[in-house]
Amino acid sequence: MTKAKKPVEPLVEVPACPFATTVSPLDYGDIITVKANKDTSTREFRIHEGLLTHFSGYFRGALKNHWIEGQAKIIQMDVEEVVLEMFYCWLYSKKLYFSSPKGDADADIPLDFEDIVDAYIFADVQVIPQFGNATLDLLFQKVTQRWKFPWWVLDVTYEKTTEYSKLRQFLVNNAADAYNFGGMRENKHCYPRDFLVDVIERLKDQSIYPGQRADKDGDKYVQQQCKGMCKYHDHSNLEKVGAPTND
Ligand SMILES: [Zn+2]
């Protein structure tokens, strides 16, 4: 990106998704133990079954079909602890992390770009669309706060998602709109060919040069993107809150 900014900016506020749903605490039900199997983590997360089955297609299937181990209700997952921690925080608070007791808006997001992208991929695989939407909102906030395009997450993104992925779409649009591709030659091995094709198509469609949108007026661009984050969300099977069902 081209605009000079302070290293840490206040977080931009992304409007709440009008399709977001909640679970009544009366429907929380039993406790399930979820363990992260990747790395050497032995950490266990004790999570209410009603939250898991409400938000995740994977957990709906796993808990219905008794794939869980024994009476203790334990599910082992091939995932990093940091991702499971984000999921746990989000289930109970709709936030992916806690930076300070007051939720200080000026604090840096204590998660790497890689963690956020891993969480999106986890949401994609385990069919947790609303959690995936939250990871994209956070990725946008992090990109904006650091004013940096995370080219180093492109490889994993293009390896682990499909061409219809909203994560791909977000990264392609952000790169085309707001990134000047400085230093690209030194890191050229980090740019998947499909990503470059996607970016060129976006530039052609929009008749813009790389970074043009943010070049013109960075703050205005950020505000516009903020309001439009829903276009990257997966709203399947969700109804807009307060709207007729055929909306
Ligand atoms: Zn939305």
From TrEMBL:
Transmembrane segments: none
Gene3D superfamilies (UniProt xref): Potassium Channel Kv1.1, Chain A (3.30.710.10)
Domain BTB: 29-100
Alphabetical list of PROSITE patterns matching this protein: BTB
CDD domains in the record: BTB_POZ_ZBTB_KLHL-like
Name assigned to this protein: BTB domain-containing protein
